[in-house]
Amino acid sequence: MAITQIKGSNIEDGTVLAADIKDDSITNTKIKSDAAIAMTKLAVDPTDASNIISGTLPAGRYTDTVYTHPTTAGNKHIPTAGATDQVLTYSSSGTAAWADSGGGPSLGTDAIIRTNGLTISDDITFVGDENGVTYGPITIANTKTVIVTSPSVWHVL
Q1: pLDDT tens, residue by residue, 65-124
Q2: Which of 20, 53, 56, 132 has its C-alpha lying 20 to 30 A from 87's C-alpha?
C-alpha cells in the first residue's frame, strides 16, 4: 500500500532527510498553508515566481540587479521641450539640442521673404571658411566688431 499522506505530528525531528526525498516529489501545491514544514526550510527555486506565496520576498533569499541606463554618448534620449518646426542639432558628443530650423528669420507664407535685423549687436568673426551676406543698410553697435578673415567674404547689399 502506498503512503498518501504524512502528518507532521508523525515525524520526529531529523527522521526525514533531504536525501530520502526524490527530486520534485514535494511541490508547493502539495504543501498546505498550515503545513508543519516551513517554506524557509525547503530548497525552492528562487527564480520561480510560484514559490512566492505572500507577495513578499524573504530577506536574503533573493537578489535583484537594478538596471541603470547608461548616459554615455550614443545612449542618451531625445531631450524634452522641443516645439513645432524645431529640429535636433548637435550640442556635444552624444547630446542633441532643440533649435529652430535653418533659414533664419522670415516673413510671409513659406518664409518667402528672408529678413535680418538693422543693427549688429554682437561681436562676429568670419574665421576664413565661410561667407556671408547682409541686406543693408546695417549699423554695427558701439563696442561691437565684425572681423572678416581671408578668404571669407561678407557682402552687404
Answers
A1: 778 888 887 788 888 888 887 888 888 888 888 988 777 787 888 778 888 999 999 999
A2: 132
pTM: 0.37
pLDDT value of residue 138: 94
Report the length, in residues, of the chain: 157
Q: Taking a C-beta distance cutoff of 8 angstroms, is the pair 115, 107 a contact? A: yes
Contacts of 7 (CB under 8 A, 6+ apart): 36
Between CA 71 and CA 62 the distance in angstroms is 28
Q: Which has the closest alpha carbon to 131: 156, 103, 102? A: 156
Q: What is the C-alpha to C-alpha distance for residues 157 and 150, in angstroms, rounded to an integer? A: 20
Q: Where are the domains of the chain?
A: 9-64, 71-102, 103-156
